[in-house]
From TrEMBL:
SUPFAM superfamilies in the record: Homeodomain-like
Alphabetical UniProt keywords: DNA-binding, Transcription, Transcription regulation
Matches recorded under PROSITE patterns: HTH_ARAC_FAMILY_1, HTH_ARAC_FAMILY_2
Pfam families on file: HTH_18 (PF12833)
Ranges of residues in domain HTH araC/xylS-type: 221-321
Name of the protein in its database record: AraC family transcriptional regulator
Molecular functions per Gene Ontology: DNA-binding transcription factor activity; sequence-specific DNA binding
Native organism: Nocardia tenerifensis
Amino acid sequence: MSGKGVESAGARGGFVVDSTVPGAGARGFAVFRRGWQTQVGDEFPLPTFSSATTGDFRVRSRVAKVRDAALTDLASASVVRTAGTPHGYDDQVRMYVVRRGEWWLRRSSDRVEYTVPAGEFLLRHGPPLHFGAAADTTVRILTLPSATLAPRLRNRSMTGSADSAEMRLLMAHTNMVHATVTDLGASGVHAAHTALIELAKAVVAGRFDDAEPSLGIALAQAARELADRRLADPGLSPAMLARELNVSVRTLQRAFTAAGESVTAYIRHRRLAQARLALADPARRPTVSEIAARWQFADSSHFIREFKKRYGQTPADYARSTRAQNFGG
């Protein structure tokens, strides 16, 4: 487990646990609970877990607290099942985003109330429910402030695709929070929390308020993550990213400009980085034309020109120097 101290006001904290490594399973739950108690605190009490779960807690998990919100990623190699819900914690908003496997919630041990399959999310307002999943399940759980979101949900639940434009923005922001939470100062905590709540509201409303200035960072991050998955796609462009994220191209460009880079420049730089990795791969030696085609450069000349501008060497020179280093030349 790793973690850092929280602010004196208890505004944020985070930790990581991996009890899937050999020999860690027996201690896994104790390590997870200790991390939760020290970095997240009693404001978010843990439920009681079944003895089978605590005795074989083989999971990879990362947890972040941002003021009155908590984000938990759980990739379980063992069964997860609760045996009791927290006391004195009857009013909450929770979102379950399932990427793999299936997540279920019950009012009692014998009645399934909700089932959330892979690729979908459930957003719910109300008292805690028993929850669980079979092994090989990956889920992100967001515990959110009810004062802000409950009036919008009105004691109802909603489900939808985990790949909707609004969900992509929310998931990109939570990825960023996980990566930075232990290093954030007071202003960073405030900005992260504000964007988190606004993006959760966007999921409820089914639309993203592109005039909200606090969401620009989350929008740019979501676009980067989407672009990284589509780098080899010939159709990748600012227009395609804007369409996938349900915003205007102008809004997307404005979010990137605030970070000091255009959308087009980001795509070009990431493709060049992938090309550079291919040139350094000792297992194979692709030609310059093959790499240019793979990463969607107009032709070899264009690729060579952009590569040299970025790295100060031609692709051929870089490949030769890399091979020389690999073989001690």
